[in-house]
Design a protein that fits this description.
The complex is a heterodimer of chains A (424) and B (156).
Chain A: H1 4-18, E1 43-49, E2 55-60, E3 66-74, E4 77-83, E5 93-97, E6 105-108, E7 111-115, E8 120-124, E9 138-141, E10 155-157, E11 162-167, E12 197-202, E13 214-218, E14 223-229, E15 234-239, H2 245-248, H3 255-260, E16 264-269, E17 273-274, E18 280-283, E19 288-291, E20 312-314, E21 320-325, E22 339-343, E23 358-362, E24 364-365, E25 368-369, E26 374-377, E27 396-401, E28 407-411, E29 417-422
Parallel strand pairs in A: 13-17
Antiparallel strand pairs in A: 1-29, 2-3, 3-4, 4-5, 6-7, 7-8, 8-9, 10-11, 11-12, 12-13, 14-15, 15-16, 16-20, 18-19, 21-22, 22-23, 23-26, 24-25, 27-28, 28-29
Chain B: H1 2-21, H2 44-60, H3 62-65, H4 83-86, H5 89-98, H6 123-133, H7 146-155
The chains are: A mainly beta (424), B mainly alpha (156).
Protein name (chain A): Sorbosone dehydrogenase
Pfam family, one (chain A): TrAA12
Signal peptide (chain A): 1-24
Chain lengths: 424, 156
């Protein structure tokens, strides 16, 4: 019994060192300028890393390491691993692997899932959640359509062994001639057989393609941000709404209306959901599903009565690139189970000024919105008004939650990773 | 028409010098590299062509390529100093008439959106907008005539 104390002390010390890097918020402090961001009272921000490449989606491990998917290869690699070994919040080591660009990345059940614009791969993780063999991922899904436009394949997993993959429509509104003034919509829209929806595959399957999965939901033009909501066990997605109402139908829509329509919509999906693209768009002012002008609409006629209603309608063209339901304990109660949405920022609003370039928050209760959306983090662009997207210094693109409840935000302009913390 | 073309070219050179002097020029933030030279008045005919070209641009191109011609990162390419804008006229006219939707490098980057065909613009409109693009956003290149557009359109 004499020896118990020293043993306990050693054990305690081991516990502390083996938790390395301990996600101890105490050692972590916000940058003096909050990394240039504007945040609600009590929140702070620090830049974990910068200049890592076109950082799209991100995933944070239980140890606080960050996996980042790059849109384009940097030094011939498409996935970056950032580690903060001394626990000061700044990543001082960086390694990279994977020879494909893309957007999707997600951690689940001992695997890292990552996507190119045609395929989904997964890498086995060790007990530190590091990839065991970076050169040999399993190919989970392959042969997905990539016709340039809307080709990013975002991924999310549920708790029943499935991976959900967005396959964006290679079109704006399914016109016979894409984005061409006066061209009519194809009836039925042939794109929907292989794109314009969410496909579901087995998370542990090998080399699956269309025939091996199912089209879980359709009528979604392009989804980049999606997340699994564990409150009501459902997939939620953010659609990028259609462009060019004025450019394509100038007699029906003036430039201002075109800049303000349609809504960027959040949908809750179930198997077989149809969200109505390309036949309708959601008008957040009339609160109606309006028949698209390519399909005989006039801005007033309604269409697709059976299509899903959005659960949240945001302003037009803001480009929601990430969705995250917050389940952490660091932020105040209001944020628990609510949705963060990273808006990449618009381009389709000229001659009106551009909008977005911020992270929004929507409170949720019981798996449903319980209040209006609000701006949570702003200032990424580094200027008051963005007239052209190329001017923005940073654009929010990915979201992830850290083990301590911090919120991580990626930027695909310079490749910055932000971490948002709350200090009471 | 030779004469008009000559006037346009002459005017363009003058315009380059003019940009140098009036840095507050609304759509031009890029410094011109043209050597300073006595700055004669821009010919009225060129001014008229550029004004008409800008009108077409604001109606049919501005949403995608933006007011300053800087495009949208990863989606729509810039029209500033690109080979397409400054280079071969036939290729340039064809981009507008037939559109473009393939992975091509533009100033070292690839852009994923499609450029729709604008064959519905008439020869004069295509000539005006391309003359405008080739002499705005820091670009300086010979203007495009409606005869040149007509010839490319006829060749299919």
């Amino acid at each position: 019994m004499k020896n118990l104390f020293p043993v306990a002390a050693v054990l305690a010390a081991l516990a502390i060192t083996s938790c390395n890097p301990a996600p101890s918020a105490s050692k972590i402090s916000a940058d003096p300028d909050n990394a240039g961001l504007k945040l609600p009272q009590g929140f702070g921000a620090l830049k974990v890393a910068d200049s890592i490449g076109q950082a799209r989606h991100i995933a944070v491990t239980g140890q606080g390491d960050i996996y980042v998917k790059l849109n384009r290869l940097k030094d011939n690699k498409g996935i970056v691993l950032l580690s903060d070994k001394d626990g000061d919040g700044k990543a001082e080591t960086q390694s990279s692997f994977g020879n494909y660009g893309g957007t999707g990345i997600s951690l689940k059940n001992g695997y890292l899932y990552a996507s190119s614009n045609e395929a989904v791969y997964r890498y086995k993780l060790d007990d530190q959640q590091h990839v065991t063999d970076t050169a040999k991922p399993e190919t989970i899904v392959t042969g997905l359509i990539d016709r340039r436009q809307h080709n990013s394949k975002s991924v999310v997993l549920d708790d029943s062994g499935y991976v959900y993959v967005n396959i964006g429509a290679y079109s704006n509104s399914c016109q016979t001639e894409d984005r061409t003034k006066g061209s009519q919509g194809m009836q039925p829209c042939p794109i929907l057989d292989s794109a314009g929806g969410i496909w579901r595959f087995r998370a542990d399957g090998q080399n699956q393609s269309y025939g091996d999965g199912i089209r879980y939901a359709t009528g979604l033009r392009n989804v980049v941000g999606l997340d699994w909501n564990t409150t009501n066990n459902a997939l939620f997605v953010m659609q990028h709404g259609r462009d060019g109402l004025h450019d394509l139908f100038p007699d029906m829509y003036d430039t201002k209306t075109s800049a303000e329509l349609p809504a960027e919509a959040m949908y809750q999906l179930k198997m077989g959901s149809d969200c109505g693209w390309p036949y309708i768009y959601y008008d957040q002012f009339q609160k109606k599903k309006i028949l698209a002008p390519e399909y005989g609409g006039d801005g007033k006629k309604e269409g697709a009565p059976n299509a899903e209603e959005p659960v949240v309608a945001f302003p037009a063209h803001l480009a929601p690139n990430a969705l995250l339901f917050y389940t952490g304990n660091m932020f105040p109660e209001k944020y628990k189970n609510g949705a963060f949405v990273a808006f990449h920022g618009s381009w389709n609003r000229a001659p009106e000024k551009q909008a977005g370039y911020m992270v929004a928050f929507v409170p949720f209760s019981g798996g449903k919105p319980s209040g209006d959306w609000e701006v949570f983090a702003d200032g990424f662009a580094g200027m008051e008004e963005v007239t052209s997207p190329g001017q923005a210094k940073h654009r929010p693109c990915g979201l992830a939650q850290g083990p301590d409840g911090s919120l991580y935000i990626s930027d695909d302009v310079t490749g910055a990773i932000y971490r948002i913390i709350y200090n009471k | 028409m030779k004469l008009v073309n000559g006037l346009v070219i002459g005017g363009l050179i003058f315009l380059g010098c003019n940009q140098q002097q009036t840095s507050s020029s609304s759509e031009n933030k890029t410094d011109s590299v043209a050597a300073p030279a006595p700055a004669p008045v821009i010919s009225d005919s060129l001014k008229a062509v550029l004004a008409k070209g800008q009108e077409v641009y604001n109606k049919h191109c501005v949403t995608c390529h933006q007011a300053g011609g800087d495009g949208v990162p990863n989606l729509n390419p810039p029209l500033t100093g690109t080979d397409y804008v400054l280079g071969d006229k036939t290729r340039l006219i064809n981009v507008v008439l037939k559109g473009l939707n393939e992975d091509v490098e533009i100033n070292g980057m690839v852009y994923s959106n499609p450029m729709p065909a604008h064959a519905f613009l008439n020869d004069q409109e295509v000539a005006d907008v391309l003359t405008y693009v080739r002499n705005s956003f820091g670009n300086t290149a010979e203007g495009i005539t409606k005869e040149e557009v007509k010839a490319v359109r006829a060749a299919k």
